[in-house]
Fold this sequence. Notes:
The chain has one domain: CBS-domain. By secondary structure, the chain is of the alpha+beta class. It has seven helices and seven strands; from the N terminus they run H-H-E-E-H-E-E-H-H-E-H-E-E-H. 34% of the residues lie in helices and 22% in strands.
Amino acid sequence: MIKAEDIMTKDVITVSPDTEVGHATKILLEKRINGVPVVDEEGKLLGILCQSDLISQQKRLPIPSFFTLLDGLIPFTSMKQLEREVSKATAATVGDIMTQNPVTVRPDTDTETVATLMVEKNFHTLPVLDEGELVGIVGKEDILRILMPESLGTS
Length: 155
């Protein structure tokens, strides 16, 4: 059975939470990758930045709706949700826009489980952690390569 460690990219491109959003976007485009792990100075995984995080920055912000009750304004939408949307839309650094606490897999996770996570949760990139240490990353292209046996060195 093929495992994550068999298909993962071991030389992982990472960014820090202080990386400017524009620079991170450039990395994703130049390297032709969907996402990058966000790590601290010690290399500890803090989050992941994906193209979808960057695209969400461009979406139209919802205009809050209110109704009046006893001379008070009551919002129809959650103010916390609106604050999160505004924060993402105005993000200057990766730390402001990244997805925190990303779903991860272990090196010995079978590729069927990885593929299931990607499809069911709409993930494109999964960090691979071994005892809390970032050791690789698996993307959708890595899963697709399994369909081409010659890419794994077997015929």
